[in-house]
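Let us practice reading a record.
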Amino acid sequence: MRLKAVAAAAALAVVLSSCGAHESEAAFAQNPSRETARAPSISLIGPLTEKEEPTEPLPTAPPTEIPENTEPAAPEPPEETKMRDDFEMPPEFYSGMDKIVEKYGMNAGCDGTAECVCQPERANADGTAAERVMSVYYLDLKSGFEYELNPGAHYPIASTIKIPFCTLIYKKMTAGELDPEMILTYEERHYFKGSGVINQGNFGDEYTLQEVLTYAITRSDNTAYEMLKDLVTWEEFSGFLADAGCTHPEDLRQSKQKLCCESAGAYGRILADFLTSDSEYVGVFKDDLVNTRIKMLKSDWPIYRKYGWAGFSFHDIAYVDAPRPYVLAVMTNLEGEAAEDYSLFADISKLVESCSQNSAE
Protein backbone atom coordinates (compact mmCIF):
# COMPACT_ATOMS: atom_id res chain seq x y z
CA MET A 1 0.00 0.00 0.00
CA ARG A 2 1.40 3.37 -0.92
CA LEU A 3 1.52 5.80 1.92
CA LYS A 4 2.26 9.50 1.71
CA ALA A 5 3.27 12.04 4.28
CA VAL A 6 3.19 15.62 2.98
CA ALA A 7 4.83 17.95 5.42
CA ALA A 8 6.33 21.40 5.49
CA ALA A 9 7.03 21.96 9.15
CA ALA A 10 5.85 19.46 11.66
CA ALA A 11 5.53 21.14 15.02
CA LEU A 12 7.29 18.46 17.02
CA ALA A 13 10.00 19.65 19.37
CA VAL A 14 12.72 16.99 19.12
CA VAL A 15 16.25 18.00 18.08
CA LEU A 16 17.94 16.78 14.91
CA SER A 17 20.55 14.75 16.74
CA SER A 18 17.97 12.64 18.50
CA CYS A 19 17.33 10.75 15.28
CA GLY A 20 20.42 8.64 15.57
CA ALA A 21 23.16 9.52 15.39
CA HIS A 22 28.51 19.13 -3.39
CA GLU A 23 31.08 22.32 -11.47
CA SER A 24 28.37 24.74 -12.25
CA GLU A 25 26.42 23.95 -15.43
CA ALA A 26 25.79 26.71 -17.93
CA ALA A 27 22.33 27.68 -19.03
CA PHE A 28 20.75 25.15 -21.32
CA ALA A 29 19.95 27.84 -23.88
CA GLN A 30 17.42 26.37 -26.27
CA ASN A 31 16.08 24.42 -23.37
CA PRO A 32 16.05 26.72 -20.35
CA SER A 33 15.55 23.62 -18.28
CA ARG A 34 19.27 23.36 -19.04
CA GLU A 35 18.90 19.80 -20.22
CA THR A 36 16.08 17.93 -21.92
CA ALA A 37 15.73 14.20 -22.07
CA ARG A 38 13.85 11.11 -23.00
CA ALA A 39 13.34 7.71 -21.50
CA PRO A 40 11.76 4.21 -21.90
CA SER A 41 8.79 2.32 -20.68
CA ILE A 42 9.83 0.50 -17.55
CA SER A 43 8.42 -1.79 -14.95
CA LEU A 44 8.56 0.84 -12.25
CA ILE A 45 8.77 0.13 -8.56
CA GLY A 46 5.73 2.42 -8.38
CA PRO A 47 2.82 2.70 -8.29
CA LEU A 48 3.85 0.75 -5.22
CA THR A 49 0.54 -0.92 -4.68
CA GLU A 50 0.03 -4.56 -3.85
CA LYS A 51 -0.95 -6.73 -6.78
CA GLU A 52 -4.19 -8.55 -6.41
CA GLU A 53 -3.49 -12.26 -6.25
CA PRO A 54 -5.64 -14.62 -8.38
CA THR A 55 -8.45 -16.13 -6.43
CA GLU A 56 -9.07 -19.86 -6.25
CA PRO A 57 -12.23 -21.42 -7.78
CA LEU A 58 -15.20 -21.55 -5.49
CA PRO A 59 -15.89 -25.04 -4.14
CA THR A 60 -18.73 -26.85 -5.87
CA ALA A 61 -20.16 -28.65 -2.86
CA PRO A 62 -22.06 -28.03 -0.81
CA PRO A 63 -23.24 -24.86 -2.65
CA THR A 64 -25.55 -23.93 0.17
CA GLU A 65 -22.57 -23.41 2.48
CA ILE A 66 -21.10 -20.56 0.42
CA PRO A 67 -22.63 -17.14 1.06
CA GLU A 68 -23.74 -15.36 -2.10
CA ASN A 69 -21.08 -13.16 -3.80
CA THR A 70 -18.34 -14.41 -1.46
CA GLU A 71 -15.01 -15.75 -2.68
CA PRO A 72 -12.29 -17.45 -0.65
CA ALA A 73 -9.31 -15.38 0.36
CA ALA A 74 -6.44 -15.16 -2.13
CA PRO A 75 -3.37 -17.20 -1.24
CA GLU A 76 -0.74 -15.38 0.78
CA PRO A 77 2.22 -14.24 -1.33
CA PRO A 78 5.68 -15.42 -0.29
CA GLU A 79 7.12 -13.42 2.57
CA GLU A 80 9.86 -11.91 0.44
CA THR A 81 7.34 -10.50 -2.06
CA LYS A 82 4.99 -8.91 0.45
CA MET A 83 4.76 -5.13 0.36
CA ARG A 84 5.19 -3.81 3.86
CA ASP A 85 2.71 -1.12 4.78
CA ASP A 86 3.64 -0.51 8.40
CA PHE A 87 6.75 1.64 7.92
CA GLU A 88 6.61 5.19 9.21
CA MET A 89 9.27 7.77 9.85
CA PRO A 90 9.64 8.49 13.58
CA PRO A 91 8.58 11.82 15.08
CA GLU A 92 12.24 12.88 15.28
CA PHE A 93 12.39 12.96 11.48
CA TYR A 94 9.67 15.58 11.16
CA SER A 95 11.04 17.76 13.92
CA GLY A 96 14.51 17.35 12.43
CA MET A 97 13.26 18.57 9.06
CA ASP A 98 11.69 21.55 10.78
CA LYS A 99 15.02 22.43 12.32
CA ILE A 100 16.86 22.09 8.99
CA VAL A 101 14.34 24.36 7.26
CA GLU A 102 14.78 26.93 10.01
CA LYS A 103 18.57 26.59 10.21
CA TYR A 104 19.09 27.33 6.51
CA GLY A 105 16.29 29.89 6.16
CA MET A 106 14.37 27.87 3.61
CA ASN A 107 10.72 28.26 2.57
CA ALA A 108 10.14 31.27 4.78
CA GLY A 109 7.14 32.40 2.77
CA CYS A 110 5.80 28.96 1.96
CA ASP A 111 3.22 26.81 3.72
CA GLY A 112 4.66 23.62 2.21
CA THR A 113 1.43 22.30 0.74
CA ALA A 114 0.75 21.15 -2.80
CA GLU A 115 -1.20 24.37 -3.30
CA CYS A 116 1.76 26.54 -2.30
CA VAL A 117 2.55 29.24 -4.84
CA CYS A 118 6.17 29.99 -3.89
CA GLN A 119 8.26 30.84 -6.94
CA PRO A 120 11.82 29.48 -6.97
CA GLU A 121 12.63 31.57 -10.06
CA ARG A 122 11.36 34.90 -8.71
CA ALA A 123 14.41 37.15 -8.76
CA ASN A 124 15.66 40.32 -7.13
CA ALA A 125 16.90 43.24 -9.23
CA ASP A 126 20.41 41.77 -9.14
CA GLY A 127 19.21 38.45 -10.51
CA THR A 128 19.50 36.49 -7.28
CA ALA A 129 16.62 34.44 -5.95
CA ALA A 130 14.08 36.51 -4.06
CA GLU A 131 13.41 33.64 -1.64
CA ARG A 132 15.26 30.51 -0.60
CA VAL A 133 13.08 27.59 -1.68
CA MET A 134 13.53 23.88 -1.07
CA SER A 135 11.57 20.71 -1.72
CA VAL A 136 12.34 17.19 -0.51
CA TYR A 137 11.10 13.81 -1.69
CA TYR A 138 11.74 10.53 0.11
CA LEU A 139 10.53 7.03 -0.77
CA ASP A 140 11.01 3.88 1.29
CA LEU A 141 11.27 1.20 -1.38
CA LYS A 142 10.22 -1.64 0.90
CA SER A 143 6.90 -0.19 1.91
CA GLY A 144 6.10 2.55 -0.59
CA PHE A 145 5.99 5.14 2.20
CA GLU A 146 6.58 8.63 0.82
CA TYR A 147 7.44 11.98 2.37
CA GLU A 148 7.16 15.26 0.48
CA LEU A 149 8.19 18.72 1.60
CA ASN A 150 6.87 21.62 -0.44
CA PRO A 151 5.57 19.48 -3.32
CA GLY A 152 3.93 22.41 -5.12
CA ALA A 153 7.18 24.15 -6.05
CA HIS A 154 8.51 23.67 -9.60
CA TYR A 155 12.18 24.32 -10.43
CA PRO A 156 14.26 24.44 -13.61
CA ILE A 157 15.16 20.82 -14.22
CA ALA A 158 18.92 21.23 -14.87
CA SER A 159 20.96 18.04 -15.39
CA THR A 160 18.70 15.81 -13.32
CA ILE A 161 16.94 15.11 -16.62
CA LYS A 162 19.94 12.98 -17.56
CA ILE A 163 18.80 10.36 -15.04
CA PRO A 164 15.72 9.14 -16.91
CA PHE A 165 17.24 9.88 -20.31
CA CYS A 166 20.39 7.84 -19.78
CA THR A 167 18.33 5.11 -18.17
CA LEU A 168 16.26 4.95 -21.34
CA ILE A 169 19.39 4.52 -23.43
CA TYR A 170 20.63 1.76 -21.14
CA LYS A 171 17.28 -0.01 -21.38
CA LYS A 172 17.46 0.16 -25.16
CA MET A 173 20.96 -1.27 -25.02
CA THR A 174 19.70 -4.04 -22.76
CA ALA A 175 16.95 -4.84 -25.25
CA GLY A 176 19.47 -4.98 -28.09
CA GLU A 177 18.06 -1.89 -29.80
CA LEU A 178 21.30 0.09 -29.38
CA ASP A 179 24.93 -1.05 -29.44
CA PRO A 180 27.22 0.47 -26.78
CA GLU A 181 30.06 0.42 -29.36
CA MET A 182 28.11 2.31 -32.02
CA ILE A 183 29.86 5.50 -33.13
CA LEU A 184 28.37 8.93 -32.48
CA THR A 185 29.94 11.90 -34.29
CA TYR A 186 30.19 15.30 -32.65
CA GLU A 187 28.60 17.84 -34.99
CA GLU A 188 28.27 21.61 -34.76
CA ARG A 189 24.57 21.28 -34.00
CA HIS A 190 25.43 19.35 -30.83
CA TYR A 191 27.59 22.10 -29.33
CA PHE A 192 26.47 23.27 -25.94
CA LYS A 193 28.48 25.56 -23.74
CA GLY A 194 29.08 24.79 -20.12
CA SER A 195 30.19 21.67 -18.34
CA GLY A 196 31.64 18.76 -20.22
CA VAL A 197 34.49 17.37 -22.25
CA ILE A 198 33.22 16.89 -25.77
CA ASN A 199 32.72 20.61 -26.43
CA GLN A 200 36.43 21.09 -25.82
CA GLY A 201 37.18 18.94 -28.89
CA ASN A 202 36.59 19.38 -32.60
CA PHE A 203 33.55 18.88 -34.78
CA GLY A 204 33.87 15.48 -36.41
CA ASP A 205 35.32 13.82 -33.31
CA GLU A 206 33.92 10.33 -32.80
CA TYR A 207 32.88 8.60 -29.60
CA THR A 208 31.26 5.31 -28.75
CA LEU A 209 27.78 5.42 -27.30
CA GLN A 210 29.15 4.11 -24.01
CA GLU A 211 31.71 6.94 -23.84
CA VAL A 212 29.02 9.55 -24.47
CA LEU A 213 26.83 8.06 -21.74
CA THR A 214 29.73 8.15 -19.30
CA TYR A 215 30.51 11.81 -20.07
CA ALA A 216 26.83 12.72 -19.66
CA ILE A 217 26.83 11.37 -16.11
CA THR A 218 30.34 11.76 -14.72
CA ARG A 219 31.02 15.19 -16.25
CA SER A 220 27.42 16.27 -16.67
CA ASP A 221 28.38 16.89 -20.30
CA ASN A 222 25.65 18.90 -22.00
CA THR A 223 27.07 18.29 -25.47
CA ALA A 224 27.06 14.56 -24.78
CA TYR A 225 23.44 14.87 -23.83
CA GLU A 226 22.67 16.68 -27.09
CA MET A 227 24.30 13.82 -29.01
CA LEU A 228 22.29 11.23 -27.10
CA LYS A 229 19.08 13.06 -27.94
CA ASP A 230 19.49 11.90 -31.54
CA LEU A 231 18.71 8.37 -30.41
CA VAL A 232 15.26 8.89 -28.87
CA THR A 233 12.26 10.90 -29.99
CA TRP A 234 10.67 13.39 -27.65
CA GLU A 235 7.36 11.57 -27.95
CA GLU A 236 8.94 8.38 -26.66
CA PHE A 237 10.65 10.14 -23.80
CA SER A 238 7.67 12.16 -22.65
CA GLY A 239 5.54 9.03 -22.81
CA PHE A 240 8.08 7.27 -20.65
CA LEU A 241 7.96 10.03 -18.06
CA ALA A 242 4.17 9.93 -18.06
CA ASP A 243 4.23 6.17 -17.55
CA ALA A 244 6.63 6.74 -14.65
CA GLY A 245 4.14 8.96 -12.87
CA CYS A 246 4.85 12.48 -14.12
CA THR A 247 1.52 14.26 -14.57
CA HIS A 248 2.26 18.00 -14.45
CA PRO A 249 2.34 19.59 -17.93
CA GLU A 250 5.33 21.75 -17.03
CA ASP A 251 7.30 18.63 -16.13
CA LEU A 252 6.55 16.99 -19.51
CA ARG A 253 6.94 19.82 -22.00
CA GLN A 254 9.88 19.82 -24.39
CA SER A 255 11.24 23.25 -23.47
CA LYS A 256 11.48 25.01 -20.14
CA GLN A 257 10.86 21.68 -18.46
CA LYS A 258 10.41 21.75 -14.69
CA LEU A 259 11.04 19.49 -11.71
CA CYS A 260 8.99 18.98 -8.57
CA CYS A 261 8.58 16.32 -5.90
CA GLU A 262 6.40 14.19 -8.16
CA SER A 263 8.77 14.18 -11.14
CA ALA A 264 11.90 13.87 -8.99
CA GLY A 265 10.32 10.88 -7.31
CA ALA A 266 9.61 9.34 -10.71
CA TYR A 267 13.25 9.86 -11.75
CA GLY A 268 14.41 8.18 -8.56
CA ARG A 269 12.11 5.21 -9.05
CA ILE A 270 13.26 4.88 -12.68
CA LEU A 271 16.86 4.78 -11.49
CA ALA A 272 16.22 2.33 -8.66
CA ASP A 273 14.24 0.04 -10.93
CA PHE A 274 17.04 -0.20 -13.49
CA LEU A 275 19.87 -0.53 -10.97
CA THR A 276 18.10 -3.47 -9.32
CA SER A 277 17.45 -5.20 -12.65
CA ASP A 278 19.51 -7.96 -14.26
CA SER A 279 20.74 -5.77 -17.12
CA GLU A 280 24.38 -6.34 -18.05
CA TYR A 281 24.81 -2.56 -18.00
CA VAL A 282 23.94 -2.02 -14.34
CA GLY A 283 27.59 -2.16 -13.28
CA VAL A 284 28.89 0.49 -15.67
CA PHE A 285 25.95 2.78 -14.91
CA LYS A 286 26.58 2.43 -11.19
CA ASP A 287 30.28 3.21 -11.68
CA ASP A 288 29.40 6.43 -13.49
CA LEU A 289 26.84 7.47 -10.90
CA VAL A 290 29.30 7.13 -8.03
CA ASN A 291 31.89 9.16 -9.95
CA THR A 292 29.93 12.35 -10.50
CA ARG A 293 32.06 15.41 -9.72
CA ILE A 294 29.77 17.35 -7.39
CA LYS A 295 29.03 15.57 -4.12
CA MET A 296 25.82 16.69 -2.45
CA LEU A 297 23.63 13.92 -1.05
CA LYS A 298 25.63 11.46 1.01
CA SER A 299 25.26 8.02 2.57
CA ASP A 300 27.21 5.40 4.48
CA TRP A 301 25.64 2.87 2.09
CA PRO A 302 26.15 2.62 -1.68
CA ILE A 303 24.60 5.73 -3.19
CA TYR A 304 23.92 6.29 -6.88
CA ARG A 305 23.11 9.89 -7.72
CA LYS A 306 23.04 12.68 -10.27
CA TYR A 307 23.00 16.37 -9.51
CA GLY A 308 21.63 19.30 -11.48
CA TRP A 309 23.13 22.78 -11.21
CA ALA A 310 22.00 25.81 -13.19
CA GLY A 311 20.21 29.10 -12.59
CA PHE A 312 17.68 28.78 -9.76
CA SER A 313 18.39 25.06 -9.56
CA PHE A 314 20.74 23.18 -7.28
CA HIS A 315 19.37 19.63 -7.01
CA ASP A 316 20.39 16.06 -6.29
CA ILE A 317 18.48 12.80 -6.80
CA ALA A 318 19.73 9.49 -5.43
CA TYR A 319 18.97 5.83 -5.02
CA VAL A 320 20.52 4.51 -1.80
CA ASP A 321 21.13 0.77 -1.51
CA ALA A 322 20.74 0.60 2.27
CA PRO A 323 19.17 -2.25 4.29
CA ARG A 324 15.95 -0.31 3.82
CA PRO A 325 16.67 1.00 0.30
CA TYR A 326 15.29 4.40 -0.53
CA VAL A 327 15.04 7.22 -3.04
CA LEU A 328 15.93 10.73 -1.89
CA ALA A 329 15.64 13.95 -3.89
CA VAL A 330 16.43 17.46 -2.70
CA MET A 331 15.57 20.42 -4.93
CA THR A 332 16.55 24.01 -4.21
CA ASN A 333 17.01 27.35 -5.96
CA LEU A 334 20.32 27.97 -4.20
CA GLU A 335 23.38 29.17 -6.09
CA GLY A 336 25.57 26.26 -4.97
CA GLU A 337 28.52 28.52 -4.26
CA ALA A 338 28.44 28.67 -0.46
CA ALA A 339 29.62 25.91 1.85
CA GLU A 340 26.30 26.00 3.64
CA ASP A 341 24.53 25.04 0.41
CA TYR A 342 26.34 21.71 0.55
CA SER A 343 25.84 21.40 4.29
CA LEU A 344 22.09 21.57 3.72
CA PHE A 345 22.24 18.44 1.57
CA ALA A 346 24.53 16.71 4.05
CA ASP A 347 22.21 17.44 6.97
CA ILE A 348 19.18 16.14 5.13
CA SER A 349 21.11 13.03 4.08
CA LYS A 350 22.13 12.30 7.65
CA LEU A 351 18.66 12.83 9.04
CA VAL A 352 16.93 10.67 6.43
CA GLU A 353 19.41 7.83 6.71
CA SER A 354 19.45 7.76 10.47
CA CYS A 355 15.71 7.83 10.87
CA SER A 356 14.90 5.46 8.03
CA GLN A 357 17.45 2.82 8.92
CA ASN A 358 16.91 2.96 12.68
CA SER A 359 13.12 2.82 12.55
CA ALA A 360 11.56 -0.38 13.77
CA GLU A 361 11.04 -2.97 11.06
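A brief commentary: The beta strands are 4-6, 134-140, 146-149, 155-156, 183-185, 206-208, 258-259, 303-310, 313-320, 326-332.
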